[in-house]
Amino acid sequence: MNKPGISRYPVPRLEELPDDVRARMLEVQEKAGFIPNVFVALARRPDEFRAFFAYHDALMLRESGLTKAEREMIVVAVAGANDCLYCFVAHGAILRIYAKNPLVADQVGVNYRKADITPRQRAMLAFALKVAERSGEIDESDYKALREHGFDDEDIWDIGNISAFFCLSNRMANLIGLRPNDEFYLLGRVPKQK
Amino acid sequence: MNKPGISRYPVPRLEELPDDVRARMLEVQEKAGFIPNVFVALARRPDEFRAFFAYHDALMLRESGLTKAEREMIVVAVAGANDCLYCFVAHGAILRIYAKNPLVADQVGVNYRKADITPRQRAMLAFALKVAERSGEIDESDYKALREHGFDDEDIWDIGNISAFFCLSNRMANLIGLRPNDEFYLLGRVPKQK
Amino acid sequence: MNKPGISRYPVPRLEELPDDVRARMLEVQEKAGFIPNVFVALARRPDEFRAFFAYHDALMLRESGLTKAEREMIVVAVAGANDCLYCFVAHGAILRIYAKNPLVADQVGVNYRKADITPRQRAMLAFALKVAERSGEIDESDYKALREHGFDDEDIWDIGNISAFFCLSNRMANLIGLRPNDEFYLLGRVPKQK
Amino acid sequence: MNKPGISRYPVPRLEELPDDVRARMLEVQEKAGFIPNVFVALARRPDEFRAFFAYHDALMLRESGLTKAEREMIVVAVAGANDCLYCFVAHGAILRIYAKNPLVADQVGVNYRKADITPRQRAMLAFALKVAERSGEIDESDYKALREHGFDDEDIWDIGNISAFFCLSNRMANLIGLRPNDEFYLLGRVPKQK
Amino acid sequence: MNKPGISRYPVPRLEELPDDVRARMLEVQEKAGFIPNVFVALARRPDEFRAFFAYHDALMLRESGLTKAEREMIVVAVAGANDCLYCFVAHGAILRIYAKNPLVADQVGVNYRKADITPRQRAMLAFALKVAERSGEIDESDYKALREHGFDDEDIWDIGNISAFFCLSNRMANLIGLRPNDEFYLLGRVPKQK
Amino acid sequence: MNKPGISRYPVPRLEELPDDVRARMLEVQEKAGFIPNVFVALARRPDEFRAFFAYHDALMLRESGLTKAEREMIVVAVAGANDCLYCFVAHGAILRIYAKNPLVADQVGVNYRKADITPRQRAMLAFALKVAERSGEIDESDYKALREHGFDDEDIWDIGNISAFFCLSNRMANLIGLRPNDEFYLLGRVPKQK
Nearest CA to A131 among A87, A77, A171? Predict the structure, then answer.
C-alpha cells in the first residue's frame, strides 16, 4: 500500500505559523472538528494562504443570487472536470451538508446532467464547466442562456469566478498531491441522530 | 426539482418477467436487500438481460489473478472516465465492501493516480483506462509494462475485457439515464456494527 | 514484413472446444465458407464467447425498426471511430452484402456525413457516434432529434445498444490485435456472377 | 437516397478548360481509364489546379528514399486521420496497386498499428500523423526516432511534406464534398487476370 | 540561450538557385527590404518552392470577395490554431499593414472572438477554423451560415482554401522549425513617420 | 466594426472606489503611465480585487529561484494555451520589458518549443502547461524532470502556482471579455531612445 501524506510538501506545525494563519486554522477546527488539509498544506506560504482564503471567502461567503449549496455544486462539478480528488471529496461533504442531500454531491461531481437538480441549476453548471474547460469560447449567447433561467449579470460573475477560482484550487491540489481528510468522505451522508 | 425515475424507459413488473430473469432479480434482492436498478431497467429485454449478466458473471466471478476488489477498481475508474453515474455509485459501493475500505472508491473514480493503491494496481488502472479511451493505440509496450508488474497474459485479458465490458455498460446506463439506487451511496462507508 | 497472426493470444483447435462453441463455429463456416477470426480468437474462453455472441444475436437478429443493413452501418461507423480494423473490415463486408451496395461500407466507416445514405440514416449514425464517444452528454434533445426522423424509443434503444456493444467489441479486438480474415476485404464488392 | 454529385460546386466541361488543364485530365484518363474526380472538381479554378498538381507531382513523383507505395501509405493514413473519404478511397486504390497488396490500404487507413507493414514503415506513419495532428509538438526527438529507422533528413522532409500537402488536400475535399469515383473502391483488390 | 537558425535544414545560397527562384526572392527583398525566411528555407527544393508560391499567389492575389486584410486574418487565426510561430508573426505583420491596424493581428491570432472585427469577419474566421480543425464535419449548415453573412460560394471556397493551404504551410514551418525574421515582429505596429 | 469596451461589465469611476483600491490603481498608473484594464474591470468588487492582487503579488514579487522574466514567460505561455487575449498581450509587454527581448513574448505565447529560451526554461514551460491543461496527470516523474534541470521544490511550487493563478485570471478575463489596453501591444518592442 502506498498511502501518501497530506501533501508532497512538508507541512508546518501550528506553532510555527503566523498568528492570523494559526487563528484561521483553529477557527475552522473549532467549527468542523478537524482542520481540512488544504489549510495545513497551504500554510507554509502565509502570503499565498491569506490571498487564497481571502479570495475563497469573497466568493463563497458574499451575498449572492446563488445559494451556498449552489455555489458548492459548482465547486464539485468543476473538481470532477479537473480530476481533483481533494475538492471532489471535501466540497462534496460541504455540498451534502448545505443541500441537506446525501446524494447530490456524487451526482453533480460525476455527471451533472443526471443529477436531481433544477433546470436552472443545470444551466448554471453547464456554464461553470464551459468556464473551466473552454473559457475562450464564451460569448454573448452564454449570457443570454443564463438570463433566460433568471440569472442576472452579478450571478453570472459569481458562477464564472467560482469556477475560475476552483480551477486554480484544483490545480494546486493536483500539483501538491493534496489528500482529503478521511472525515470528508462520510460527512453529510448519514442523517444526524438526536 | 427534477427527480428522474429509474430509467427513461418503462420498467417491467416482476410478475411479467420470464422465470429465469425474475429468479435472478430475487436472488440479488435476497443477497443485497434491494434490487439494483440495472436489473430492473434491463429486464424489459430478457435476451439482452441474459447476455449482459452472463458476460458480467463470466468476467467478474471467474478465477483470476485479479482480486474481486481489483476488478471493481477497474469498473469504478472506467465509470469515472465515461461520466457514468450509475456504475460510479453502484460499483463504488461494491468496491468499498470488497476492499473493506471506505475511501478507495472515490479515490479511484476521481483520479486513480491519487488513490491509496499499490503501484501494480496503478499500472492496472492506467491500462484499463487506455482500453477505455484509446484502445486503438494499444501495442506491445503496454503488455510489457503490465508484465513488469507481474501480470500474466490472462490477467491482461481480464483487465482489458472488464474495461471493455463496462464501456458497454456505461454507455447503456448513460443512454437510458439509469439512476443508482439511493442505497448504494452509503454502502461500505460505515463499518458494520456488531 | 510483420504479418501478425489472428490474435496476440494462442487460439484453440476446434477439437478442444466445448460442443456448443464448436457447433457455432461450424455453423458460421457452413454459411460463410470460412470461420471469421473473432470466433476463433474468443473461443479460448467459452463463457465469454457464449455471452458475447448471445449479446450480438440479441441485438443483430431481433425484430427491429432498423434494417439489418442499418444495424451494420452503425457497426462500421463505430468501428471507424474506435480505430478498429477488424470490425471495419469484417462488418464492412456484411454491410455491403446486406445493403447490396459495394460503396456504402467505406463511406460510412470513414465519414458517414459523405455517405450515400438517407437523412434518417445520417441522424441514426450521428447518435450512434455520440453514444460511442460522448455518452455522458446524451439528453432529451437527442431523443427528440431521432423521433423527428421517425425512430421510436425501441429503435433508439437498438441504435444505442448496438453502438455500445461494438464499443466493447472494438476494444477487445484492439486489445488482442484481432486480424480480419483476408476474405472480408473483397466480399460484397463484386456483383455475384451467375 | 441522397446521392451527392462530384462536388458541392459546379464542375466545368472539358471543352471550357484551358488547354494545359484539359491535357492533364486527358492524360490521366488515358492512363487510368477514367478521370479522377479531384481533377474534375478543381479544374474550375485553373491557377489553383495547376499549383495543386505541381505540388502533388513534386512530392509524389520525385526521386526519394521512400517508395511510391510508402508515399501512398502516408496519404491513406492521413486521410483516415482527417476523415477524408476521397483520399481514403482514391489513394487506397493507388496504394493497393503500387504495393501489389489488396489489404494494406484498409489496414493503414483505419489503424496503421495493425497493418502488415515493417517497423520502419510504422515509424514513418507515426511521424506523418504527428505532422497531421500535432505538428507544433515536433522536436528533435522525432527526427532522432526516424533516423534510427534509417531515414535521412531528406526522407523526413518527404514524409512531413506529403503529410502536410494531404492535410491541405483532405480539407479541400471535405470543404467541397468531393466524391470518390466509384471505380476506386474496387481497384487493386482483385488480381489481374490474364 | 538556444537561438535556432532559420530552419533545421541547410539553406541554399542565392547564387546556387535556379534563376526564377532567385528572381522571386530578389523581388520580395526589393519590396519588403528583406527576404522572408520562408523563401530562404523552401528554396532548397525548387519544384516544391514554385508550387508552394504559385498556390499562395493563386489564393492571396486573386480577385475575391474577401479583402486582402481579411485573407490575412484567416492566415493568422489558422496559425494560432496550429501553434505556428512563423505564420503568426510573419502574416501578423502583413495583416497589420493591410488592415492599417496595429492591434488586429494579435487579437485574431489569440482569440478571434475578442477581436475588433465585424460579425461577418467573425463568421468567416469561425469557418476557417472549422476547416482547419474539423473539416470532416463541414456540412450544408456551415454554407448556410456564411451565406447569411453575405458570402457567396466563391468566397466560401476562398476562405476554405486559404485555411487549407495554411494548414499545409503551418505544418511545413513546424516540421523544419522555420524561424520568423526579426523584422516581422515590429512591422505595422508603429505608424509610419513622414 | 464592433469595438468592445474594457469589459462586458460596467466599470466604476475612480472616485467611487475604496481608498486602498484607488491607491493601488493610482500607484500602477504612476509607474506605467496608464491603468491596466484588469485593475479597472475588477475594482467593482473590492474584496475580490484585493484578494486577486494579493495573490498576484505573493507569487510574482516574492524572492524566487525564477527570475521575473521567467515568471512572465509562464504567464504568457499559459495565456496562449487558454486563448486569453488580455494576458497574452499585457503580460507579453511585461515579459518583453523584463527580458529586454522584443521577440520572446510572441515566441513563448504561440509555441514555446520554438522560442529562443534555454532548455531549462523549456522544461519549466512544459510543466506550467501540464499544470494548466492536465494537472490531474502530474506525478513524481514531472518533479524528477524539473529537478534534473536544477529546479528545487520551491521553484516547482512557484511554477505550478503561477500557472494555476493565471488559469484563474485567464478565465476571468475571458468571462468578462477583458480588453487589453492599446498601449500594451507595442510596449517593449522598440528599444528606448535616449
Answer: A77
